[in-house]
Write a structure and sequence with these properties.
The chain has about 290 residues and is an alpha/beta fold. It has helices at about 10-20, 30-35, 40-45, 60-75, 120, 125-145, 160-165, 185-205, 245-250, 265-270, 280-289, and strands at about 1-5, 30, 50-55, 80-90, 90-105, 105-115, 145-155, 175-180, 220-225, 225-230, 240, 260, 265. It has two domains: about 1-205, Lambda Exonuclease, Chain A (Alpha-Beta Complex), CATH 3.90.320; about 220-289, no CATH class. Strands 2, 4, 5, 6, 7 and 8 form a six-stranded mixed sheet that branches. A three-stranded antiparallel sheet has the order 11-10-12, covered by helices on one side. It has a two-stranded parallel ribbon with strand order 1-3. The protein is globular, with a radius of gyration of 22 Å. It starts with a strand and ends with a helix.
């Protein structure tokens, strides 16, 4: 991947960002790749040398290195820091890097540190639960030890004291601990098997120069179109509907109102997907738009 510096960031920052700190080791797939879109994983593999990213979009990743130093200097006697765990399962070599393991007599508590936004803390993030349960499965397979808890330690980069005092569900501190549901071992393994099946199919298609499976709406962070009933000149809508039929029915009962279509979008594709330029699915979507 080629890194650019369009906004003239300091050389010291650029040098750090250019020095890779992440490696999945001698593994076919990592825990984070398992929960990712198979299409994205394969397009990255196929087009890695053609991809381009500006260092300005990577600044927050510096916190990953900072967190590593914090964990090393702040660890207690029962802490295991930044351990990469490897397991071979059904022909796949799987790895996952666990930020912090708190080791107790009756099991391990897994902690994963994330630099994120207040919005993410306030809303459901199923991929966090999935990732930590894969870590739990890896530890149980590799070490034959029980896992008794999963936690996200969220560092809220856009935290506001004013918002914390005014909004009930807003994080009350810039660092928040979020407990995640711990799945039974069997459920985690079934989830992993299903994900590996999809990734295996995508890999086969990429090797055969076939058609990669499309990303799902969830993988594209798709927001569907919605239909607002609004009076011309007003800022707020009288009502907003998920379907055109519902909106039309409401409109037929009113006078002086119009129908406003609020177009949906594929947020990840439009703004956050590195491989969007190489994705036929996205190019077709743009043509339709």
């Amino acid at each position: 991947m080629k890194l650019t510096n369009k906004y003239g960031l300091p050389e010291t920052i650029v040098n750090v960002l250019k020095r890779p700190t992440y490696s999945k080791g001698k593994a076919h797939i990592s825990a984070t790749e398992i929960i990712n879109s198979p299409k994205i994983v394969q397009l990255k593999r196929l087009h890695w040398n053609e991809l381009e990213e500006d260092v300005s979009s990577m600044v927050w990743s510096l916190f990953g290195s900072a967190i590593h130093n914090i964990l090393e200097h702040g660890k207690a006697d029962n802490h295991i820091v930044e351990e990469r765990v490897h397991v071979t399962h059904d022909g796949w070599k799987i790895s996952g890097a666990v930020d912090l393991q708190e080791v107790y007599e009756d099991g391990i508590v897994i902690n994963d540190y994330k630099t994120t936004t207040a919005w993410a803390v306030q809303n459901d993030k199923p991929e966090w639960e999935q990732q930590l349960n894969i870590y739990a499965w890896l530890l149980q397979k590799a070490k034959n030890v029980p896992v008794k808890g999963l936690r996200i330690v969220a560092i809220v980069r856009d935290w506001s004291a004013r918002e914390a005092s005014n909004k009930e569900n807003y994080p009350q501190a810039p660092i928040v601990i979020l407990d995640q549901m711990l799945w039974p071992f069997e459920r985690a393994e079934l989830f992993i098997d299903e994900r590996l099946k999809h990734h295996g199919e995508a890999y086969f298609e990429s090797e055969m120069d076939g058609n990669l499976p499309d990303c799902t709406p969830e993988e594209m962070w798709e927001k569907p179109s919605r239909y607002a009933i609004i009076k011309p000149g007003n800022v707020r809508a009288k009502s907003v509907h998920d379907t055109l039929e519902e909106a039309q029915h409401q409109l037929n009962q009113l006078k002086g109102y119009v129908l406003e279509v609020r177009e949906g979008e594929r947020t990840r594709c439009n703004s956050y997907c590195q491989v969007a330029p190489f994705c036929k699915q996205y190019q077709q979507y743009k043509e339709q738009q």
